[in-house]
Amino acid sequence: MGISLKAQADAFAVTPKFIFVPIWNHYAKVWGNAAFFKGLLNSVLAALLGRFMAFAIGIPAAFALNQSRVPARSAIPGRLPVSYMLPEFLFVIPMYGLFQATGLFDSVFGLALVHQTFPRPFTLWMMRAILAEVPFALCEAARLEGA
Predict the structure, then answer these.
(1) What is the pLDDT of residues 93-127, one digit of tens each?
(2) Fewer CB atoms inside 10 A, N or C side of the chain?
(3) Which residues contact 49 (CB under 8 A, 6 or more apart)?
(4) What is the pTM of this model?
């Protein structure tokens, strides 16, 4: 079991104790703290908002990429996985400066923007494969009917 269930004397003992009586007071103290719930709510909200933004941008972009007839259309999907090869800290410094300048630093919306940056290429890549099954003629017929 984890160190969080041990008493302080057992947790920091020189020889580790594998058999001990679990103490649940630590969890009760954390779950009873109002600041913990505020932080948890902010984290869940930022993650959900970030995923929603990634889908809201990625799905229409994938559809447009599949349905458009531009010359660079075939080159874009091959370059999407390259974004996962770049280390994330390359994006952190420019985002920090941008968020400081726009007032998004230390806000839930700013954190949501960070959360949508990394899954968006994957969303675009996967949705492009799914939306490739929609025939171009079907979309063209819908456009002619006023959709």
Answers:
(1) 899 999 999 999 999 999 999 888 888 888 888 99
(2) C
(3) 108, 109, 112, 115, 116
(4) 0.76
